[in-house]
Specification:
With 431 residues, the chain is α/β, with parallel strands linked by helices. Helix content is 46%, strand content 16%. The strands form three sheets. It has a six-stranded mixed β-sheet, with helices on both faces. Strands 6-9-11-7 form a four-stranded antiparallel β-sheet, sandwiched between helices. It has a three-stranded antiparallel β-sheet with strand order 10-8-12. The longest helix is centred in the middle third of the chain and has 17 residues, at 211-227. The two termini are 37 Å apart. It binds uracil (URA). Uracil (URA) binds next to helix 9.
């Protein structure tokens, strides 16, 4: 087999076999195929795309390029969820303890944030003492003991994807649905869960700007997962505005705690319960979707989910006492963003809100950057809310950096008009 022939085959619009894709990925990972040839292959793929089988073979080859986590020593169905990245998306922090409180095994490896969306691991690290690094052995032990562990990616999971993604990033080939689907799924398949719900975000704060693109991505990821033997569901959720009110690491933990205590914002509870209901059914612990949702709401309202969260934090070395005074998660320095006109909030550009949080120090522009845990945005007004000139649109929790820039970004992000608008949050479910 020769790489030049494979590049030409893809360039001319032909389908690659599993053997050919495996060859490509194995040799690229080993450094035997240089970046310039892989770049040509990626660009050919950008124009000619890949069919579902090729994308599945690519996901499997990238999964097999590194460590795969074997969760078979945990009895029962192990579940996982993935979000394609949203602003204010703290669903994992709530969903994990919520499901575990009902007996579901939640074994999750999460990532750090990059760009305008935050990462679960950064959020958890805002809890003093919380250890995100566990050996695979201890990860499994903890799930067996308390039903849940949320850790950073351990070992060398899908190194081919890491290398390929870095190359896509600098060759303008990130934006290709089969490449995105196989990249995400290679990591999901390596992390060992039996049932996965994908939350595919759509809107201007998301990777996928249109519903049509989001459906394509969702269907392909579901198909890849299913071909690899997983129970799969994808939901399409709107990212026309941030999820919940709080954006920033400690702020999102704060809002997650409020939600676990039954006081969460409606949109955040809605998405969390919807994903949870699918996973409760996939776990075999419930048959009826409406009944599943009812049980999840009950666990949020009766303190069970919050108790499980405290167990999780304790098991991973976090300071539960610090959470009792959860104001300490927030910077004591605040600045208000004031509304300049009367009307209704008609749009909140989530991308700009994410960027504003990043300017305050909550996110990182480069992988090596540090994040500040106690800065961020509390967005008081959301789409459909009536506002008056002089109202506080948002409170910024700040340190020294980025305050004016963040204020401008937020004012620019929030559109105010005369017509009240309500957008559906969950757009589609793909099974
Ligand atoms: N996230 C991933 O993990 N991979 C992509 O290609 C795009 C988003």
């Amino acid at each position: 087999m020769h790489i030049v022939d494979l590049i030409a085959k893809k360039r001319d619009g032909f389908e690659l076999t599993q053997k050919e894709i495996k060859y490509l990925i194995e040799n690229y990972t080993k450094g035997l195929i240089p970046d310039y040839q892989m770049s040509a292959f990626l660009m050919a793929t950008y124009f000619q795309k890949m069919n579902d089988e090729e994308a599945t073979y690519l996901a499997l080859a990238m999964r097999d390029s590194g460590d795969t986590i074997d969760l078979s020593s945990i009895p029962g169905v192990k579940v996982d969820k993935h979000s394609t990245g949203g602003v204010g998306d703290k669903v994992t922090l709530i969903l994990g303890p919520l499901l575990a409180s009902l007996g579901v095994k939640f074994a999750k490896m999460s990532g750090r944030g990059l760009g305008h969306t935050g990462g679960t691991i950064d959020k958890l690290e805002s809890i003093p003492g919380y250890q995100v690094e566990l050996s695979v052995e201890n990860f499994i032990k903890q799930v067996n003991q308390i039903g849940i562990a949320i850790v950073g990616q351990s070992g060398d999971v899908a190194p081919a994807d890491k290398k390929l993604y870095a190359l896509r990033d600098v060759t303008a080939t990130v934006d290709v649905i089969p490449l995105i689907a196989s990249s995400i799924m290679s990591k999901k398949l390596a992390s060992g869960a039996d049932a996965i719900v994908l939350d595919v975000k759509v809107g201007h704060g998301a990777f996928m700007k249109t519903e049509e693109e989001a459906v394509k991505l969702a269907e392909l990821m579901v198909s890849i997962g299913r071909l690899a033997g997983k129970k799969m569901t994808a939901i399409l959720t709107g990212m026309d505005e941030p999820l919940g009110h709080k954006i920033g690491n400690g702020l999102e933990v704060y809002e997650a705690i409020e939600t676990l205590l039954g006081r969460g914002p409606e949109d955040l509870v809605h998405v969390t319960v919807e994903i949870g209901a699918h996973l409760l059914i996939d776990s075999g612990l419930e048959k009826d979707f409406e009944q599943a949702k009812k049980r999840l709401h009950e666990a949020l309202n009766n303190g069970k989910a919050y108790q499980k969260f405290l167990e999780l934090v304790t098991a991973q070395g976090g300071d539960v006492k610090a959470l009792e005074k959860k104001e300490t998660l927030l910077s004591p320095h605040t600045v208000e963003v004031i509304c300049e006109q009367d009307g209704y909030v008609t749009d909140i550009n989530a991308l700009d809100i994410g960027k504003a949080a990043m300017r305050l120090g909550a996110g990182r522009e480069k992988k090596e950057d540090d994040v500040l845990f106690d800065v961020g945005i509390d967005l008081h007004k959301k789409i459909g809310h009536a506002v008056k000139k002089g109202d506080v649109l948002a409170t910024l929790y700040v340190q020294k950096q980025g305050i004016d820039e963040a204020k401008q970004l937020i004012l620019h992000a929030i559109s105010i008009g005369s017509v009240k608008k309500d957008l559906p949050l969950i757009r589609k479910t793909i099974k």
